[in-house]
Amino acid sequence: MQNILELKNITKRFPGVVANDKISLDIRAGEIHALVGENGSGKSTLMNILYGLYNADEGEIFLRGEKTKITEPRQAIDHGIGMVFQHFMLVEPLTVFENVILGSEPQKRGFIDFRGAEKEVARLSREYGLRVETGARVEDISVGQQQRLEILKALYRKADILILDEPTAVLTPQETEELFGVMRNLKEQGTTIIFITHKIREVLEISDRVSVLRRGKLVGTKNTSETDRPELAEMMVGREVLLRVEKEKAQPGEKVFSVSDLEVRDQRGTKRVKGVSLEIREGEILGIAGVEGNGQQEMVEAITGLLRADKGKITLEGKELQNLNAMQIKKKRIGYIPEDRHKRGLILDFNVADNMILGFHTEPPFVQRFFIRDERAIKENAGRLVEEYDVRPPNIQQQVSTFSGGNQQKIVAAREFSRKPKFLICSQPTRGLDIGAIEFIHKQVIDQRDKGAAILLVSAELDEILSLSDRIAVMYEGRIVGEMPVEEADEKKLGSLMLGGEARKDRGGDTVETGTE
Amino acid sequence: MVRKILSLIFVFALLFSLPMGQQAEANQLKVGVVFSIGGLGDESFNDAAFKGATQARDDFGIQLDYVEPDDIAEMEDHQRAFVEEGYDLIIAIGFLQESGLEAVARDYPDAKLAIVDSDYLADKPNVASLVFKEHEGSFLAGYLAGRMTETNTVGFVGGMEVPVIFNFQTGYEQGVEYANPDATILINYAGDFGDPGTGKELAVSQFERGADIIYHAAGGTGMGVFEAAEENDFYAIGVDSEQDGIVPGQILTSMLKRVDVAVYNIIEDLVKGEFHAGVHRFGVADGGVGLTDFPYTDHLIPDDIKQDLEVIKEMIIDGEIEVSSAHD
Amino acid sequence: MKLEQSSLTSREILTPIVSVILALLVGAIFILIVGENPIEAYRVLFSNSLVGMDSIAATLQRATPLIFTGLAVAFAFRCGLFNIGAEGQLYVGAMAAVIVGITFSGLPKVIHLPMAVLAGMAAGGIWASVPGLLKAKLGVHEVINTIMMNFIAYFLTDYLVTGPFHGGRWTPETARILPTAELSRLLPPSRLNTGIIIAIAAIIIVYIFLWRTRLGYEIRAVGFNPTAAEYGGISISRNMIMAMVFSGALASLAGVEQILGVHGRFIQRFSPDLGFMGIAVALLGKNHPVGVFFAAVLFGALRTGAAAMDRLTDVPRELVVIIQALIIMFVAAEELTRRLMQRRRRA
Q1: Which of C44, C168, C189 sits opposite B99 (nearest CB)?
Q2: What is the pTM of this model?
Q3: Which residue does chain B place closest to C188, by CA atoms?
Q4: pLDDT digits (tens, 9 = 90+) for C55-113
Q5: Do B73 and C263 count as a contact with CB atoms less than 8 A apart?
Q6: Domain carrying residue A322
Q7: Residue A180 and residue A224 share a domain
Q8: At a CB cut-off of 8 Å and minimum separation 6, what does B219 contact?
Q9: What single-letter DSSP state applies at residue A323?
Q10: What's domain B25-132+260-282's architecture?
Q11: pLDDT digits (tens, 9 = 90+) for A178-235
Q12: Which residue of B has its CA nearest to C43?
């Protein structure tokens, strides 16, 4: 196969960092080329240069053998390069096909040819197997559909090189499968795909070749068939990585926490939790598997006092908790890693020290008399936790928004674990984190379990559920539809329960692994 | 960058600390005028004051500066600023300035201050109160009305019920009575100086009750009186400045309050070293109040009435007729 | 327009300074259009506002109410609220203070003055609590409500000053307050008064409150990220109401100072938009108490110097309004000044 694209010695510097350091990469025509690396390794920067969003300080781009200068996205599009960003660039109130033609509207006598456009979009959608309702408004369609729409947009602009920037980060396992189907389809039709990810399992599943970046440098390019998980992980992290969570078998003690017959409405008044009952014992992790949006978040928020429960009982060590407010719940030694650390878990504009006391800011030693803060105690607390949880950089005065996702999550975890919680809720604890950070957070969660905490783990990542939990419950449409010890669970079984218990189609070459990434 | 900015600031600071370039010529007297609300271009009070002040500037070679405040609260600021700048005389136009000037007079006992149209500060040792004998001028207006009326009924529309306006009313009443003891005088107040609608309503009502000449002392409210006069074909009499031209032929005359004369005189006093505090009253004798020369109505007024008006005027000057004010 | 920590970063200090310089440069163009010498005009402007004791006193006197309104706007903004109602709050505060100031005779100053000041603060605080409550409980946008409350405040005080508390002879103003309720003059005959000391104290108190107390922590948390604050057990509605009450109390101090320290009486519509200027002051001061102080002093200086410039040159006073507007535009267009600074650095 011939190289459709060659990057030669691409270097890009930002103040204080070299984001891309003399990166040379060949992409072959018609291949799926995975580009992997931890957060901040320079994958996105490199692709943004290719797409013309950044200009490289040094280096050259050869497209179909010709040296090409790409200084803005328009040129990239003209050269047949399309890019689907992690955060979609869609106009929500417009319809699907209107979004597709936006910026390249077909014209007929000076007017936009809407009918022709819709037909063309529908044809593309059929041809590539990209199921989208062309007439629906973007705000009304699912994330998976929005992503397919983004791909359609690129194809409509005659892209034959497609860059997908972490496309699976926002998808459910089913949607991911569907995306891989689309990618295989595109490949058959001759499209070259550059697939950015940090999930090794996906690399192995879908790609032909894989290039690994670490700290702005290219570590190497491999044929996917000639490599394996440990090798890729080591290339990414730069050291040997434990891919499995090492844990002893749980030693569950007394029943600590229970929920019975819980019913919760969301803020719009729709009933999202419809009679859930759970029990967690001391030193035990109960994993809640389920496609997102099946009531997990509402359940967790009702437990933590952020939403009112309509009905049902929540008890901790026999004491009822339902409908206490968030502050009262905090004071019962309940730790909570929220699903969205930016929205809930952190105040990004505050520094580390101030975030480390969020929720505990009314308690000694952080306040003295007359509401005056004890700055020394606050600093001491932060300094200790930063060291203990290896937050980098270890600067407690630094604004949290400037930290990487992994370090931000470490700050949340450090805070929530710091008061020796009896009961801990971890909701999507490793979302968007890279391997090193995931490994760290997982170790901490196990550590808390071993110290005797009862833990409720909610995750959309089956791998995570399978590798951390002692027991697994599956939530579907506001109900628990199945519960089993981890030993009896596998991805297939859980996957079928997650879809409401219907038998799923055979997933073909899907590998069943319980490892984490 | 920080250094660049600091050096810029330094340069600016140096520039500003230099002595002021635009100094007044030595010994030139400086007069500051703080106008009333409405400012220049009001074709009334402020413009009249400005006319007197510029006349004085041209005649005596003083330095004249002035400022037009936007609201009442600002007036005191400007009075103070002039005092602090070392102005030799500060003239405040209009009674709205009196409480501000009261504080300035207290804080700056050495400043020479003047206020037009208010005697509230008459007892202050550094304030000259420039007031008018509105009653004398209004007497002339009333005399003319009393002689000219064919229905033996005349009207008066006042703005607000405040002492100054009572002066207009009482002078007018005395004048009418002097000319025509049998005449009926209709009196109404609008309660506002800026409400032409009510002014018109009152004037029309007086007209319907028989009045054929209506005198107003009601500021902007008086515009409604003129409108009524035009629509119903009766005579009106204007006030303060020459309003005869607003509805030519329908406005018999205007009772002039010569703010320009008052301002000119007080500056003249200053120049001559004769400035003194206390009340300065401007009446018929010194041309501070009077009637217009009938620019549009000369042909309507019989010569004997004009001659008699001159006689009456002389009698007021000579003291043969004593017009009493509302405060007497 | 946000600030992370209790101290200002160098960029946050540089942007306003560069904005002021740019505004003066553009203002110079306007002066040239009028046909005057900009250097001369600016020299008159600033030598009459910053050089000499009298000028400085006049500048500080004009800065005092702006410190209060600037702090008020900045404080509410720290809780994520945009208080456009400082103008109305200062009117009701001023009215409450003047009522206490003229009514209670025979009290010693140590009681009467604080009583008048506190009455004003209470009135302003209660006034501002209404939009605060509506926002917190019903989600009604505070911008709309604070603006509407301004109109109510104008007409309510219009009524009180021409009706029950009319004390001027025929001007729309109240009687003079008793001497026991006066804020003492610091450098007579300048009207600079002890209000400036209250203002500086307010700066310090606001600083300590926001960054050194638990309550300030909660207010800032709600301002930056209400959902995370809620997660941390912080009541969003309680803090919003509290922030509005404090903001209103601060704004009312501007009116209180004007009445008890400057005018000595309530004059109908006495404020030359001090409340709205507070928005500009807060913006220029980057919502930081210390920044607010310098911004208020700058605006005070511009207004003080403007009168002198108007009298002594042919440049009209209104130029200063143009300069103020330009400053705000340049601060708001932070990106522009940042690029200018970067380009120079590169050059």
Answers
A1: C168
A2: 0.79
A3: B107
A4: 899 899 999 999 999 999 999 999 999 999 999 999 999 999 999 999 999 999 999 99
A5: yes
A6: 244-333+423-428+452-517
A7: yes
A8: B159, B193, B194, B240
A9: T
A10: 3-Layer(aba) Sandwich (3.40)
A11: 899 999 999 998 999 999 987 888 899 999 999 999 888 999 999 999 998 888 888 8
A12: B16
